[in-house]
Specification:
The protein is an alpha+beta fold. Helix content is 25%, strand content 27%. The strands form 2 sheets. Strands 7, 8, 9, 10, 11, 12, 13, 14 and 15 form a 9-stranded mixed β-sheet that branches. A 7-stranded antiparallel β-sheet has the order 2-1-6-5-3-4-16. α5 links the parallel β11 and β12. The protein is globular and about 55 Å long. The chain binds 3-[O-phosphonopyridoxyl]--amino-benzoic acid. 3-[O-phosphonopyridoxyl]--amino-benzoic acid (PXG) binds next to α5 and β13.
């Protein structure tokens, strides 16, 4: 990473020092949350699952009918160039594509070209503790028929409200039920439970983001010989699980040890979660799963 200097941010073909990296107040990403994004990590000079993140970005964009105006390959090159410009090997990367600048009014036809931003800077995993406390939120995840959570859009208020509620109750994370009351996901992570050595996670059509860490954890768990089941999970099952953990690029893998005052398992990270966390550490630095920044 660049030392004693400002990180360089990519905006529409140019690099700007962080303090000068600015966009218009008329950008529809700001005015209407009209845009999509990805959050990615690079570990030891390898961008973990960059292709998968770019695929998901393009799927989100297609769903909201936003033409990025670049090929996937070009987007990949911009990410790599941003990392190189910042001399980064380990970084948290954010790609943001908004509808672009236009007059007031949601009509997207008035935005002539998208705004493309790439940020790469260091970031510690978001939870500092070994295991965290969570609550089942009163805020339901947006149903698929309103705004499919598979679209990683700039509209995060649903998740922000759940997080605000959790923090106001003095716990770190919110677990959001879907419209039917089944467990969907945490405010910015997917969720897994372990019961009798079986690993269970809500299916994508429960209304969740199809997390790339989630997919990685499913592969790791199967490789370690565990049975993985994608099915609806009730709040009762959550309280009575042997282990619960959440997964995401920013958080990585985080055990949940207490939910709504119920101790999960024996109140400390469980053995299955630990095994998966250990394997994840190996996988995310394995060049076979990512794109090298240099060479
Ligand atoms: N569900 C939701 C709702 C998310 O936003 C995940 C699951 C995990 O997906 P990945 O692909 O990362 O395994 C996310 C993504 C942050 C932050 O700054 C984190 C996410 C999104 C936005 C911000 O903490 N996680």
């Amino acid at each position: 990473m660049v030392k004693n200097a400002e990180y360089l941010i990519y905006i529409n073909g140019k690099f700007y020092p962080k303090s000068e990296a600015k966009i218009s107040v008329y950008d529809h990403g700001l005015l209407y949350g009209d845009g999509v994004y990805e959050a990615i990590r690079a570990y030891k000079g390898v961008v973990f699952k960059l292709k998968e993140h770019i695929d998901r970005l393009f799927e989100s964009a297609k769903s909201i009918k936003l033409d990025i105006g670049l090929s996937k390959k070009e987007m990949e090159e911009i990410v790599i160039e941003t990392l190189r410009k910042n001399d980064s090997k380990d970084a948290y990367i954010r790609i943001i594509v908004t509808r672009g600048v236009g007059p007031m009014g949601v009509d997207p036809r008035n935005c002539k070209k998208p705004t493309i931003i790439v940020i790469a800077e260091p970031r510690e995993p978001i939870f500092k503790k070994e295991g965290i406390e969570a609550m089942v939120s009163s805020i339901r995840r947006t149903p698929i028929w309103a705004l499919d959570p598979r679209i990683k859009s700039l509209n995060y208020l649903n998740n922000v409200l759940a997080k605000i509620e959790a923090l106001s109750y003095g716990v770190e994370e919110a677990i959001m039920p879907n419209e039917h009351g089944y467990v969907a996901e945490a405010s910015t992570e997917n969720i897994f439970i372990v019961k009798n050595n079986k690993i269970i996670t809500p299916p994508v059509n429960a209304g969740i983001l199809k997390g790339i860490t989630r997919d990685t954890v499913i592969d790791i768990a199967k490789e370690l010989g565990y049975e993985v089941v994608e099915r609806n999970i009730t709040v009762h099952e959550l309280f009575n699980a042997d282990e619960v953990f959440v997964t995401g690029t920013a958080a990585e893998i985080v055990p949940i040890i207490k939910i709504n005052g119920r101790i999960i398992g024996n109140g400390s990270p469980g053995p299955v979660t630990r095994k998966i966390m250990e394997k994840y550490r190996e996988v995310c630095i394995d060049p076979k799963y990512g794109t090298p920044i240099y060479g």
